[in-house]
Specification:
Shape: globular
Oligomer: single chain
CATH topology: Rossmann fold
CATH architecture: 3-Layer(aba) Sandwich
CATH class: Alpha Beta
Helix content: 25-40%
Number of strands: 26
Length: 510
């Protein structure tokens, strides 16, 4: 039915002039929740930055372990949970804001800033104050940060509702009250889930939760991060300090895989606290995390309006295997196991061997973990740490914020596409790095380049060649850095959104 009548009236009301057309905006309040490493941390007492500000703590130009030692969780921080957050929040370390510059950590690799995601949401809300970032101390338990988020999100929603009610143009008759939209990356999705589980009224006030690369079933990479000292014959300075820090952090242990991931040849097991302790972690923190996984397996909490965006086609560690000569060393494997609906392993009917397959992922979170519980995931070719600045991901976030019809696939629908593989422990000055491209038949028309992520220096184009040491037809190129720095690797096929990953090159240890 038309709105404008033959007499120029609009819905029966006399009207002179052109019919106004308004910009499409959402009335809802938005909260952006980063992943692990994604919040700047500082010493509350001194204001000294501990994380996300001074890259020299990683590149080797700064001596001493200073911030790394300060980031280790003490006994009280290790025991902090939701009740702690409600009664006596911790104050030693403060989350000062979202990550504003590229960062990097061994195993977990690169993480890009969250500024683009915030900017895109600000374009589709009624006013910029409708978008609230939620920085948090990612070192601590998901349950603790979930309680803090529940309180912060409720306060943000109430402030925004008061603001909307005070503006006549926004207070449209018949319009529903604003609700919440959460946009969460990686571990941030687990924090949102904890917040909404703890506060059912907040869940009822939530229209949608967008999770981007969230490891609902955990990530095998977290075990590799705890195992750094065992796995390295001569671990470098950064590796030593990161492992010593990670072993104390509840947040890292909350990323442990809860699915069956330990390859035993003819069987596959779930991790136990004993396994985690042998690999370099804390058995008590592991027991708490693995118990949470068991609870979710028995009673899955469905996020309201859940929209999962999932990275695929990237080489991703999915399962683990103990080294035969040293069971304290665990090695990542790029395949998963088929699990039937009854929970049993899928096996080859002739041999009884468990069926292994490469489920791929976003280089950190494998596909089944990121899509768990989501009714209609959207898939994109992208690296984990760069997903929140990936153009297709940002487009999907805008669509969901504006309540567009849900998309189902941002790739080509096949699950096969370009992948980028970089050294997950970074590199040392003077030593060449091997950069690998997967999923492509030929280097023709493909561009691979490396540039400093901290300066404006132009990138170095690299020559891709078929890698004779790979059986999967991968392409590779070599790059030797001329200075310690954080470098951005960019793969552009000309047909897909470019893939990016960060690689840290450090000075040699003294």
């Amino acid at each position: 039915m038309g709105m404008v009548g033959a007499d120029g009236s609009v819905r029966g009301v006399p009207f002179a002039g052109a019919v106004p057309v308004f910009e499409d905006r959402t009335r809802d309040a938005c909260v952006v929740v980063p992943g692990i490493m994604g919040s700047v941390l500082e010493d509350t007492a001194t204001g000294r930055p501990l994380w996300g500000v001074d890259l020299r703590m990683l590149t080797g130009a700064r001596s001493g372990e200073g911030p790394f030692a300060a980031l280790r969780a003490d006994t009280r921080e290790q025991g902090a949970d939701a009740e702690t957050a409600r009664r006596a929040p911790l104050t030693r370390v403060r989350a000062a804001g979202l990550l504003a510059r590229p960062w990097w950590l061994p195993v977990f690799q690169g993480l890009d800033p969250y500024s683009k995601a915030v900017e895109e949401l600000e374009k589709v809300v009624l006013a910029r104050e409708a978008v609230a970032p939620f920085p948090y101390d990612w070192r601590l338990a998901v349950s603790y940060n979930g309680a803090l988020l529940a309180r912060a999100a409720r306060a943000h929603l109430e402030r925004w509702r008061e603001r909307v009610a005070a503006v006549p143009e926004w207070r449209a008759a018949g319009e529903a009250r604003p609700r919440l939209l959460f946009v969460a990356h990686s571990m941030g999705g687990l924090v949102v889930r904890a917040a909404l589980e703890q506060d059912p009224e907040l869940a009822a006030d939530t229209r949608a939760v967008v999770t981007v690369g969230t490891p609902f079933l955990g990530s095998a990479k977290s075990v590799l991060a705890l195992n750094l000292l065992h796995a390295q014959a001569r671990p470098g300075r950064v590796v030593r300090r990161v492992q010593a820090m990670a072993a104390t952090l509840p947040g890292v242990h909350d990323l442990l895989p809860g699915y069956r991931c330990l390859d035993r040849g003819l069987d596959v097991e779930r991790l136990t606290p004993g396994h985690v302790a042998r690999f370099g972690g804390d058995p008590h923190l592991a027991a708490r995390s693995l118990a949470e996984h068991a609870r979710h397996r028995s009673s899955w909490f469905a996020l309201p309006g859940h929209r999962a965006i999932v990275g695929e086609a990237q080489p991703t560690v999915q399962t683990l295997e103990e080294r035969h000569t040293d069971p304290s060393v665990v090695e990542g494997r790029y395949y998963a196991f088929d699990i039937r609906d009854d929970g049993e392993l899928g096996r080859d009917p002739a041999t009884g061997i468990p069926a292994r397959r490469d489920a791929s992922g976003d280089s950190t979170v494998h596909l089944p973990s990121a899509q768990a519980g989501a009714p209609a995931p959207a898939y994109v070719f992208g690296q984990h740490g760069a997903l929140m600045r990936h153009q297709e991901v940002l487009r999907q976030i805008r669509r969901i914020a504006l309540e567009r019809p849900r998309g189902t696939d941002l790739g080509d629908g096949t699950g096969h596409g370009p992948g980028l593989e970089t050294p997950h422990l970074g590199g040392t000055l003077g030593q060449p790095l091997t950069l690998t491209v997967t999923g492509l038949d030929t280097p023709a028309g493909v561009s691979l380049s490396v540039r400093s992520a901290t300066t404006s220096h132009p990138g170095h184009p690299l020559t891709l060649r078929r890698d004779p040491d790979r059986t999967d037809g991968a392409l590779s190129a070599r790059f030797t850095a001329d200075a310690p720095d954080l470098y951005q690797v960019t793969l552009d096929t000309g047909r897909h959104t470019p893939l990016t990953q960060l690689v840290l090159v450090t000075a040699p240890d003294a």
